[in-house]
Specification:
Layout (H helix, E strand, L loop, with lengths): L6 H9 L7 E5 L12 E2 L9 E2 L3 E4 L9 E9 L13 E5 L11 E4 L3 E5 L5 E5 L9 E2 L10 E3 L7 H9 L4 E5 L3 E7 L3 E2 L10 E2 L2 H11 L3 E8 L3 H9 L6 E5 L10 H7 L3 E4 L4 E2 L5 E5 L2 E6 L3 H19 L10 E5 L10 E9 L7 E4 L8 H6 L2 E5 L11 E6 L3
Parallel strand pairs: 5-6, 13-16, 13-17, 14-15, 17-21, 19-23, 22-24
Antiparallel strand pairs: 1-12, 2-11, 3-10, 4-6, 4-7, 5-9, 8-9, 18-20, 20-21, 22-26, 23-24, 23-25, 25-26
Helix pairs in contact: 1-6, 3-6
């Protein structure tokens, strides 16, 4: 029997040959957390005109080269209400932030440095008493960006900043990757839906909720097909409902026990098995194969094993289907807050918490129990502390890799 694959080998199998999902166009209001599929160029120039960055007076710089300077006030310019005329020598226009700079003016005197005084029938004069106009008081045309500039690249996840920029660029709809479809199937005679009252030997199914939440956070459209019972007929029925998914996730039943029917039923449906165990703790009984164009990921039934494997393998797969770099698969660096025991032959993903460290790196401490059935310690954790196979003792303060649970 061949030895279990390493985590890196298993992930390479899972990601091999992944093609991004097709492109679709969605309204910008519906594009939050979607993944941009194409380079996005500005359709507009921003700002489209020289604009005042301050409240004050639009003037000719030459007229205020010597102070004090007295100018004739000839009009007002406000955002959305530009001054239609032109500023000539010895003239000024009252201007407000965001207003276009009038023709003829090339500077803005801030209002704190000037005073307007009525002069009877002759109108109003502006006396500039102090200060030199700052170049920053005027935002020149295209100061932010110009039409034709590519400002957002493909594979960019669209958050609040990106959406604001895209709207300012003139876009009302955006080309994004279609969300990968993930079908999730829990298996087991002992499982009940949340809200049920368990009878003898029964437990509440919870893993599917965490796996679905991880998939949605990664940008997928997750669909819970239901709980398949430990019969070929029930599994067949549930797998039929998963047709059309890019990823089929099963939870439980993927080992080699008498009641573990997931693998045999899937192989009978045409799945080509890639592997079914890996050198990982928790999560050794992990299955992966291909069923037509779908990728099948069989997660362990233990709650912690299921969620840890989904974080380590499902999230990078979904990122790849969206055309995004698999940056979430790369661990970060932290310092061990306590001494860590040597590790065995399987890569260990210890549930752990982090706190701020004095040198800028987080300090990581494992939670009280690493039992793969305990959800309460997992909920307390904010990362996975990775112990490579056969890692020696790590003293307190040693650099160790961690994988954040939230992303």
């Amino acid at each position: 029997m061949s030895p279990p694959l390493s985590v890196d080998e298993a992930l390479a199998h899972i990601l091999d040959g992944v093609e991004p999902t097709p492109v679709e166009r969605v309204a910008i209001e519906a594009a939050h957390r979607r993944t941009l599929a194409e380079p996005l160029a500005a359709l507009l120039t921003q700002p489209p005109f020289d604009a005042s960055a301050m409240d004050g007076y639009a003037v000719r710089a030459a007229d205020v080269a010597g102070l004090p300077a007295t100018l004739a006030l000839i009009g007002i310019a406000a955002a959305g209400h530009p001054f239609a005329g032109s500023v000539e020598a010895g003239e000024a226009v009252r201007i407000f932030t965001g207003a276009p700079l009038p023709a003829g003016a090339d500077a803005v005197v801030i209002q704190e440095n000037a005073v307007a005084e009525p002069t009877g029938s002759a109108g109003t004069t502006v006396i500039v008493r102090e200060g030199v106009p700052d170049l920053d008081n005027v935002r020149p045309t295209g100061f932010d960006f110009r039409a034709g500039e590519v400002l957002l690249g493909p594979a960019r996840r669209l958050g609040p900043r990106e959406l604001s920029l895209a709207a300012a660029m003139g876009h009302s709809s955006l080309p994004v990757r279609r969300r990968p479809r993930v079908a999730i199937i829990s298996t087991g005679d002992e499982l009940l839906l949340p809200g049920s009252r368990p009878g003898p030997g029964q437990i509440i199914s919870s893993n599917h909720l965490g796996v679905a939440a991880l998939a949605q956070s990664a940008g997928a459209q997750a669909h819970f097909v239901g709980i398949a019972r430990d019969t070929r007929e029930s599994l067949e029925e549930h797998f039929a409902q998963a047709d059309g998914a890019e990823v089929i996730v099963t939870i439980g039943g993927a080992s080699v026990g008498d009641h573990d029917l997931v693998g045999p039923v899937l192989r009978a449906r045409g799945m080509v098995l890639s592997f079914w165990k890996i050198a990982m703790r928790p999560g050794k009984p992990l299955m992966f194969g291909r069923l037509g164009t779908a990728r099948v990921l069989g997660l362990p039934g233990n709650p912690v094993s299921s969620l840890v494997c989904a974080r380590v393998f499902l999230v990078p797969l979904l990122r790849a289907l969206l055309g995004e770099p698999a940056h979430d698969a790369r661990p970060l660096e932290a310092r061990a807050g306590v001494a860590l025991e040597p590790n065995g032959p399987r890569q260990h993903y210890m549930r752990a918490t982090t706190a701020a460290g004095g040198d800028g790196l987080p300090v990581v401490i494992p939670v009280r129990s690493q039992d793969s059935s305990l959800l309460a310690p997992l909920a307390q954790a904010d990362c996975l502390l990775i112990r490579p196979p056969h890692a020696p003792i790590a003293p307190e303060g040693a650099l160790v890799p961690i994988l954040p649970l939230d992303f």
